[in-house]
Amino acid sequence: MLSIIAVAMAGIAYVATRGQEPTEREVTTVSRKADPTPTATPSTPVKTDKEKKKPAKPQVQRGKVYVEVYNNSGITGLAGRIATQATDAGWQVVGSDNWYGTIPTSTVYYPQRLKAAGKMLALDLGIQRVMPAVDGPMRLDRLTVVLTADAA
């Protein structure tokens, strides 16, 4: 019984596909001769769609970003010294004071919209740790630098 059904299905498939173009095509290879003397021709690099659509990152304008510097170490005048260093680098330092709490190492805290600025400030001051700001003890319209004994 199964044999009869298989033969019938093969016959139907043959009749249904008769007269159609074959789906396989003949492939021929073309060999190229190598040019014995290559010539240098200037070429323009071709940009892919990804490169063309990449928006330019907005540049951080140091003078438009507020910065507060806090001392969380026993070093007298550390916040003032680093605040001066940040001002000299072009940042708008709006205050410096002591920080009360426990911070493991000197850190630049940033609100989400100032993430790039926070990373740049950390580079300017030689601080390795950059973290999102904590709502409550920190203001979310500026960068907050908390310094410990290992500060730059």
Automatic annotation (TrEMBL):
Region (Disordered): 19-59
InterPro entries xref list: LytR/CpsA/Psr_C
Domain LytR/CpsA/Psr regulator C-terminal: 65-150
Bias-annotated ranges (Basic and acidic residues): 21-35
A UniProt-annotated Pfam family: LytR_C
Biased amino acid composition, Low complexity: 36-46
Record protein name field: LytR C-terminal domain-containing protein
Species annotation: Nocardioides luti
